[in-house]
Design a protein that fits this description.
The protein has 169 residues and is mostly helical. Helix content is 60%, strand content 4%.
């Protein structure tokens, strides 16, 4: 049986790990990277306002108003955001572009988009790893919720309840 020293592998330096996964992600870009449109600013506000008015009118037709339900504006706003996001997501998903299409459209013959994405991946992966490491001291307390509870384990004899007769050692 291997001792603890043998079973613990020395971790690779963080930059080497980030390089490896970054390289994998860039290699997968032709099949996995999709560029999508995103509506921002006034477009989001306009569609959300439309749905707020729509929901308010539908509720009023059913007898629900701010006079009968003073806090209904929270419901209206929340559901208007959900409907807005549903509409935008549906439109955005129907208009996706692969990295080759974006390179062709922008005239990027040197694959600078891929290089920029590689740099950003590596930087963000390293930042995420550093952030996790900086919080490692708090992990034992957080992970204690995942510890095996004390007491009998599965497969031990019970204390003679009705199912005890069916137990076979």
């Amino acid at each position: 049986m291997a001792n603890d020293k043998d079973s613990r592998r020395q971790p690779e330096p963080m930059s080497s790990q980030a390089d490896g996964v970054t390289g994998d992600l860039v290699r997968l870009m032709p099949s996995d990277l999709v560029f999508v449109m995103r509506f921002m600013g006034e477009s989001q506000h306009r569609l959300q306002s439309h749905f707020q008015d729509f929901i308010r009118a539908e509720l009023a037709a059913g007898g629900v108003t701010t006079e009968t339900h003073p806090m209904i504006h929270l419901f209206i706003e929340n559901h208007a955001i959900l409907l807005r996001d549903f509409v935008f997501s549906g439109v955005l998903l129907s208009r996706q572009f692969r990295v080759e299409e974006i390179e062709r459209l922008t005239g990027d013959t040197t694959s600078m988009i891929r290089v920029d994405i590689w740099d950003q991946f590596k930087s963000h992966i390293e930042t995420a790893e550093k952030q996790f490491q900086s919080q490692a001291g708090t992990l034992p307390k957080l992970l204690s919720a995942f510890e095996k509870p004390p007491g009998p384990t599965a497969g031990t004899k019970n204390d003679g309840g009705s199912d005890g007769a069916n137990y076979q050692a």
